[in-house]
Amino acid sequence: MSVALQLGIIVGYLVIALAVGLIAYRLTDRTAEDFYLASRTLGTVVLLFTTFATLLSAFTFFAGPNIAYAQGPEWILVMGLMDGIIFAVLWYVVGYKQWLLGQRYGYVTLGEMLGDRFGSRWLRGLVAVVSLLWLFPYVMLQQVGAGTALEALTDGAVPYAAGAGLITAFMILYVVVAGMRGIAWTDTLQGTFMLVTTWVALLWVLAAVGGPGAATEALASNPDTSQFLSLGSGYYTPQWMLSTAIVIGFGVAMFPQVNQRFFAAGSETVLKRSFVLWPILCVLLFVPSFMLGAWAAGLEVAVPEGGNVLPAVLAEFTPTWFAALVIAGAMAAMMSSSDSMLLSGSSYFTRDLYRPFVERDLSDRREDLLARGGVVVFASAAFVASLQRPATLFELGDAAFSGFAQLALPVVLALYWRTITRAGITAGVLVSQLFYISSLFVAVVPGSYLGWSAGLVGMGLGLVVTVVVSLVTSPAAAERRAIYFDQPGAD
Amino acid sequence: MRRNELGLWVAVGVVLAGLAIPWFLWGSAIVVAGLPIWLWWHVGWMGAVSVVFWVFTQRAWGIGIERDGGGDASSSPDRAEPTRETRPEGESP
Hints:
The complex is a heterodimer of chains A (491) and B (93). Chain A is mainly α and 491 residues long. Chain A has 20 helices and 2 strands. Chain A has a two-stranded antiparallel sheet with strand order 1-2. In chain A, helix 5 (75-105) runs parallel beside helix 10 and helix 7 packs parallel to helix 18. Chain A is globular, with a radius of gyration of 22 Å. With 93 residues, chain B is mainly alpha-helical. Chain B has one domain (2-70). Chain B is built from 2 helices and 2 strands; from the N terminus they run αββα. In chain B, strands 1-2 form a two-stranded antiparallel ribbon. In chain B, a hairpin with a 2-residue loop joins strand 1 (31-32) and strand 2 (35-36). The radius of gyration of chain B is 20 Å and the shape is elongated. Chain B starts with a helix and ends in a 34-residue tail after the last helix. The relative contact order of chain B is 0.11. Classes of the chains: A mainly alpha (491), B mainly alpha (93). At the A-B interface, helix 5, helix 6, helix 9, helix 12 and helix 14 of A face helix 1, strand 2 and helix 2 of B.
């Protein structure tokens, strides 16, 4: 019964999503800008929820509660600082400036924006290659996750390859048809659904166990978890909490599907409202979701090997249909993140690699077609890779946030520091990427420095290299600094 | 004047980020109304952050980014939709 129900809910979601996509399709212009950015017309609610759903969905439902279950609820603080504050500040510092520049010059990708300023298609290509290097394995991880979840859900009736394949095929169809507008609309439904079901789940579980006081008391009296309530632990050290929050917070802002949303706001008012509401939205989701994970540890909810805590808690304390609804919603959420990544990945490929290096005078109409083709290629390649389950790609996918974070400081410098040169930013990007990748794969480069993570150290290194190289080189003839500094707000 | 104001907002941002985790409650396990006290602090702090962000959007939006940015300038109606300019010739796109 529950399997049929879960499948029914997933299929129901797919049908609703497709309907939304078809409505969005009817409203689209056939241009690349509309396909990628919904022609920069997103309103507050849609922008807020599409960013929210893209960023947080699968992680909030699965990995986050698992961490709280294993290590205690301090994870809420780390996520609150990382997403609620650091990312919000970057939303202004990076996002607002990017939005102004995008409005003025029509940029669609980060690489395009930097390439134009520094007069270099090679820099543009470099940013795209670095981004795709981290994005590709991350998309693959989502497919692996969805395929595995579907296999577990149906007790093997739908084998892994078929499940992952089905979901990939649906995502391709959906993204190709609906583009950014359709994705943003379904994300809005998704985000609302996530928020409501998480709170209902929390209230349901608390009603069953006798309220938050009783649940917390169970944590305190259980010898395994009595340490959970005091702030900090051997796992949650100040260095680790700060490293994680800073690196992931900056990484998020450089993730293509998030960064690209900086360009998509309809107006300045939309940006302002989203910025103000963002910290509240984060807290509203993190507290119930991660407290459920932490409380589950005190209540001795058993989690199967390799499984997730949230489904286990729901199975124990709520009716089957409700648990099925939440899990199906979480799987759908996983897909709603992946579809945005496919779209962004395709745009980085067509705009920053294909167009500048293969076919320079690409018409709008043709770029639109190519962009949709790019989605098919990107998704299929990630799916084929996911069948092989290569260890290297898994490691890259897990490290993607830190990998993207390496881009952040050179980009911030490019936006605000007049003295930066093409050589400076190129060196900063290359050195920090090489350092961080080495820390993953080369034994002599450690992953931790006095408790501070290699991701954070790499960011510092990128900053220093960018500054020093910029100071000792002079701008190339093709650089056009005026684009960033003399225009915004001048009219 | 604008420079001081920018410095002030940078300081505000650092404080907002710096106290999202209540370091002064490190090791505390006091429980209030069913939740650890440090979690209540965090929830209240995030609410306060949202209020400060709102004040920022009203008073200083554009600071550090637009040349004449922030404050009064934001009342200019044209600014919300700057016209798209054709790029000067150069390499790319």
